[in-house]
Amino acid sequence: MRRVLIVAYPFPPEGGASVKRTLKFIKYLPELGWEPIVLTVKNGNHRDHDLSLLKMINRNVRIYRAFTPETLLKGDGQRKEKVVGVDQQKEKVSRTRGAVKKMWRAAYHLIGDYVGIPDAHILWLPYAFLKGIQIIFKFKCVVIYATGPTFTDHVVGLLLKKATGRSLVVDFRDAWVANPSYRANRKLKRKVEGLLEKRVILGADVVVSTTSGISEDFKRRYPQANPDKFITITNGFDPEDFPSSPKDRREKGRFRIVHTGILAFERSPKFFLQALRKMIDEQPGLEGEIEVVFVGKNLRFDDNKEIEDYINEMNLWKAVQVKGFMSRAESLVYQQSADVLLLIIGIVPEEFLQTYGLSGKAFDYAISGKPVLALAQDGATAEFVKKTNIGIVIPPDNVDMIKNTLKEFYHVFKSKGLIVKRKEEQMEKYNLRFLTGELARDFDVCPFPQRKRGKGGA
Predict the structure, then answer these.
(1) How confident is the model at residue 107 (pLDDT cuts 50, 70, 90)?
(2) Which residue ranges make up each domain of the chain?
(3) Residue 114: DSSP 8-state
(4) What is the pTM of this model?
(5) Is residue 452's pLDDT more than 50?
(6) Under DSSP, is residue 268 helix (H, G, I), strand (E, B) or coil?
(7) Among 21, 39, 188, 209, which one has the highest count of C-beta atoms within 10 angstroms of its own C-beta?
(8) In this model, does residue 453 exceed pLDDT 50?
(9) Do domains 2-71+118-236+432-444 and 239-427 have the same CATH topology?
(10) Which residues contact 337 (CB under 8 A, 6 or more apart)?
(11) Cβ distance 272 to 301 under 8 Å?
(12) Domain 2-71+118-236+432-444, CATH 3.40.50.2000 — does that match?
């Protein structure tokens, strides 16, 4: 069985959408003749933990974790220690160490948080590179697969390719500099990241993207590259993830709308909540009949407000619940308990519509069998919802249209129940076992290093 080195900073115990795709590829690659060996971070600066994801990994998978100084340098000021009977010399050493740590922390924030080239995890790079070299030669890996974001992974992958001669497959779960969520306000950062992206694209043997829009954008911006190396492998679903008999997490008879996943920046629930407020104002009795549940991380939006600000301003606490981050298993249970699933993409600048990613959450929604209310412009998400016939697409800022659709959903729910007639022939190609097969075929066509005769051949 041939071996592939998987470079993935986002990896369990980190939770969230960034790890799902990688875990599924790792799960199914051995069936296709490829043994994955994982290189990830040892003490990563993870904000969300989901220990349940570790159970999804076969115990035979080799996982190597490279150190990063991020967490050591994280924090503010000098650490205060209460020590009884310490002499003056030890106090002096402690103050000196505190000053050094403070200086290093300042450097970390400059490099990681402010400069962020390519992202805040750049300090992991030298440790990951050295560990990757060891893994490649020890296990005779013939392909390097790097997944981003985190885009530091792509830079690590490129350096490993140059150092070892192995083939490099880079996977763009989202676009890099062409991503509308990419907010580089500094000219130097934009220039350097543009150069890094170019080096990665031209240096890789295969460039995988989750949407055809991202692939076409790469072809347009890098005409010197062989167009055949740009491959689209979408996100997808794994039927084995979904509970056969999900728990009902709602009050009987209430119409439940559920949103799972991250909301931030342009992905704002503002217009949806305005529509909900108008609907309740027009029919006050609905306030006790409808519940909206937001499961997942909620950050600040483009107007510098948070979801709680909207709920307070619109007085919607009787109808809206904010649950925060939950494990993937818990999130799927909430999806199954919904009558309607809410998918918010938000308002994206027209020049970025082509390269705006299609969230893995959309595929979970599709397999759930619940109708989807997608607030999105034309683009990958709208195309997917329409192609599979899993719901309705509405412009994200059309409050009246959102309100009227909610009313229609509610009345159908009360009268005969909501039914989704999705196009099963369209769904089949999004099964992650099938999609992993496409990735394995990309590995198969990579140029492999020639084995040397005798001992020590790689």
Answers:
(1) low
(2) 2-71+118-236+432-444, 239-427
(3) I
(4) 0.85
(5) no
(6) coil
(7) 39
(8) no
(9) yes
(10) 246, 247, 248, 249, 250, 256, 258
(11) no
(12) yes
